[in-house]
Amino acid sequence: MFTIGVLASGKGSNLQAIINQIESGFLKVKIGVVLSDNPQSYALEIARSHGISAIFIEPGKYKTFLQPEQEVKYVKCLEEHNVELVCLAGFMRVIKKNFFNSYSGRIINIHPSLLPSFRGLEAWKQALQYGVKFTGCTVHFVDEGIDTGPIILQAVVPVLDNDTPETLHQRIQEKEHIIYPIAIKLIAEGKVKIEGRRVIIDED
Ligand code: GRF
To answer: Taking the CA atoms of the chain, what radius of gyration do you get in angstroms?
Structure first.
């Protein structure tokens, strides 16, 4: 079966959404392994409670990316678990060379804005501060830039006058939980093609 690996640093609600869609039968993939740079990540607990290998790998001395020797360990571990697609789900570090050597074009991410607006951290706060009336979330392929890779799917979320960062983030996450499993399903079924910056989906 098509095998994915999930990398998460935080609470793991996207991981949970993926697991839910596997258990419902919608998503016919296997999660080979869940990796985290944070031993406290709830994602590790979610994985273990579903019988999925969950491994903390020391990130090393840098804050925003993995120390290269450590990055090699992440990639080795994914390969050992036969991972074909790497899914970043709230993984708080920039992916670098070692990942692209092995998984170029096979790494995806979920970002909480309508890219290319509001790249980087706390995109829902950036959207609120900017005053946009609509924001949302984006599933995209990961390239060597930050939140710059080809866009696979997006969902729109209206910004309400009484929104706080928390309420807006929560409504964005509800959409993330819908589109991330759909994007994984499309890739697993071989329906996604990259043409330059455009991602073409073969809907049959
Ligand atoms: C999500 O908002 C996602 O868009 C961003 O990190 C957050 C992860 O949330 N990349 P969770 O850990 O899956 O709940």
So the answer is: 16
